[in-house]
Amino acid sequence: MPGCDGPAGRGADAPRTPRGTARRTPPTTLPASLWTDQLAGPVTPRAAVRGEERADVCVVGAGFTGLWTAYHLAALAPGRRIVVVERALAGFGASGRNGGWCSALFPVAALADEMRAPLVATVDEVGAVADAEGIDCDYAKDGYLRVATTPAQAARLRAEAGDGWLDANAVAARIRVSGALGGVFDPDCAALSPGKLARGLAEAVERRGVTVFEQSPARRIGPGLVELDGGAVRADVVIRATEAWTSRLPGGGREIAPLYSLVIATEPLPAAAWDEIGWRERFTLNDDRRLIIYAQRSADGRIVLGGRGAPYHLGSRIKPAFDHEDAVFEHLRHTLGTLFPAAARARITHRWGGPLGVPRDWTPAVRFDPSRGLGSAGGYVGDGVAAAALAGKTLAELVAGLDTPNTRLPWVNRPVRQWEPEPLRWIGINAGRLGAAASDARENRTGRPSRLGKAVDRLTGH
């Protein structure tokens, strides 16, 4: 099957780990963030794989994709032994450190309409499972408000919204965003604490009989075998759910580009500040700039604001040092004060970030080849909380041999377009990032739509 995972070849930019190379010690703690601090008590790593394990299904990656796959497959095939292996700790990657949006958004317009209904249902299902499993992840489905803060943004949003356009007064009745000219409201989005959801979901799959190993980095993934530091898992079916870290696996160097998104969180704001802002419900929020920002009001009364803008690193490198870019944090702090003057002097208590997975066509995909027993899902471009839950359920249905509406969705078994080799990839991605920032700056200055912005939209499928 085109694009399915396997060890047969290496991409031109695939990381190489020759025999005898020193192994990296996997992290034993979760990255520092607001979501990590909200967890109840310290996190103790689960056991690592030592020696050889045997399973019917091995899922590589204990983020949302892997955990939801295991969760649903345990229900569909209760007699199978399912093993999840994780390089660090469950929820270590984007699943545990994102902005906390569980939305029905899809990153490319061409498939958005077909994907909308199943993603809407998934937003509700995430909340229902959290409730049923006793996962207190601060889930609140109050919708998503997208505002226009420049005339150019207003023109785009008004054309898109039609009768759903909210004028400035209607937006101000929901929230007072400085300079807001109008907006669009989407009811199908929930705010949550992703760290609590990821860790709670790992416990839920264990209650269903799934074995979760942590501290077990995968060195190679192929039909019937996952080679790990310190051991291996032999399985009839192998599912790769490694998102941004796919780029570090043999053969994955050009399949996914890890792009960084960074987040800040304020101290809990006083009642007077919330009264001035008028943000009473926990709907999520952004505007229509191209260098994306995203915000939520946390359950404990903070503004959590994230955004793009960090550079892509040559060779798809991922390092803990890249989680922090002072210039991006300062830009987010400035954006916070611009949108919400009442919060301009609020103390920033948390700053964090991490890589998310971006495919060349900006389109997530779910893939399964029953003849080889190999599957994968990912490439959510930052809209992954609900999409990963849907992908996991779809993978479980594919592995169980079911024909369902999910298994017939257009992202299933899509051909994969590879990223360009380096340094073309580095040049192109960073040029797009700078182009998005330049188009925003021009629209802020002139109030008119940017031609450069239209080119960026075509590049990213919007």
Low-pLDDT ranges: 1-22
Query: Gap between N and C termini, in Å?
Result: 28 Å
What is the general shape? globular
Helix content: 25-40%
Quick one: biggest sheet? 8 strands, mixed
Order of helices and strands: HEHEHEHEHEHEEHEEEEEHEEEHEEEHHH
- What is the count of β-strands? 18
Mean pLDDT: 92
Instruction: Count the DSSP helices.
Output: 12
Instruction: Classify the beta-strand content into a percent band.
Output: 15-25%
Estimated structural class: alpha/beta
Q: Return Rg in Å.
A: 21 Å
Verbal overview:
This protein has twelve helices and 18 strands. It has helices at 34-37, 64-76, 94-97, 109-132, 151-161, 168-174, 194-207, 271-277, 326-339, 384-399, 424-446, 451-460; strands spanning 51-60, 82-85, 101-103, 144-148, 166-167, 182-186, 189-191, 211-213, 218-222, 225-228, 231-240, 257-266, 284-287, 293-297, 303-307, 348-358, 365-369, 374-378. The strands form four sheets. Strands 1, 2, 8, 9, 10, 11, 17 and 18 form an eight-stranded mixed β-sheet that branches. The longest helix is centred in the first third of the chain and has 24 residues, at 109-132. Helix content is 32%, strand content 21%. 51% of the residues are buried. It is α/β, with parallel strands linked by helices. It is globular. Strand 10 (225-228) and strand 11 (231-240) form a beta hairpin. Helix 2 packs parallel to helix 10 (384-399), helix 4 (109-132) packs across helix 10 and helix 11 crosses helix 12 (451-460).
